[in-house]
Amino acid sequence: MTEQTVLVEVRNRVGHLTLNRPAGLNALNLDMVRQLRQQLDAWLNDDQVRVVVLRANGEKAFCAGGDIRGLYDSYLAGDGMYMTFFREEYALDQLIHDYPKPVVALMDGFVLGGGMGLAQAASHRVITEGVKMGMPETGIGYFPDVGGSYFLSRLDGAIGQYLGITGTHIRAADALYCGLADHCLGSDLVGELDQALDSMQWSDEPASDLDALLHKRASQKIPGSEIKAMRSAIDHHFSQPDMPRIRASLAAEECPAYQDWAERTLAAIDSKSPLAMNVTLELLRQGRELSLPDCFALELHLDAQWFAEGDIMEGVRALIVDKDKNPRWNPPTLDDVSPARVAAFFADFQPGQA
Which residues are catalytic? Predict the structure, then answer.
């Protein structure tokens, strides 16, 4: 018997979906995506389910992303599964965005990549103080997908560019400040929230019932946001028109309050794929003007080219397969990335086809 990777339970008209691969940080594979989709489809017209709660087992992660090693192996094998995974994963995220019943994403630990795709689609995004959230794709030579071109590009100022380009992990105060979470619930109160859900008398407005429940028990703002403290520097540097100028702007930071942060940010940029960062910047620019379905379609358009033409295979080799942590990016520096190469990835995309 293989362990069930998604657990399903209905209690008091609440459908609970629990990601159950804690040893793998609940990373999504195609089977898990299909199980989640099947259950959400089944509950769509089920009057016995008024609310859905999406959560995870294990203390380390809600979901640390997609099973990227499996996608790497699929591309090498030439079986096409990696594109099937992206298509079905994005369709699942779109379904959650559009779901007519409230969906609570209850998050603790790492929420990265594919985990963010699930979480940002939910109507009620609830974190604990232990959350570590981010879109770290450029570090493996990839770009923020799972709707990242939509939800990152709509953050205030240049926060989306900063998070997407650097892959920075943020904690609870930042997640609330940035608008990537709605409520922060103490991890010691999760059991109490479950008891409240189990005893709730649901009205005809379950979303309002949930709002009242969460406002009573959780915080909508907590002190200590590092992004708030660095906000003017983030907006200044990451609103520059291209990656070389973003880097040059950071290198020229003279304000003592921001210099340590600027140096750390420069080090982060210098470790990422130059091509992936350039494509990410353009992806977020275009995503800002696109509908959510078109954002997913654009990400798929890039996926179809990226394993052959981008840096992901080298990034996964260096960081996950061989673990030499010495990726040979192509091209190796920001100055070597031609605008024409970046533009070519987007050239044949037609919005409105989704």
Answer: 66, 114, 137, 145
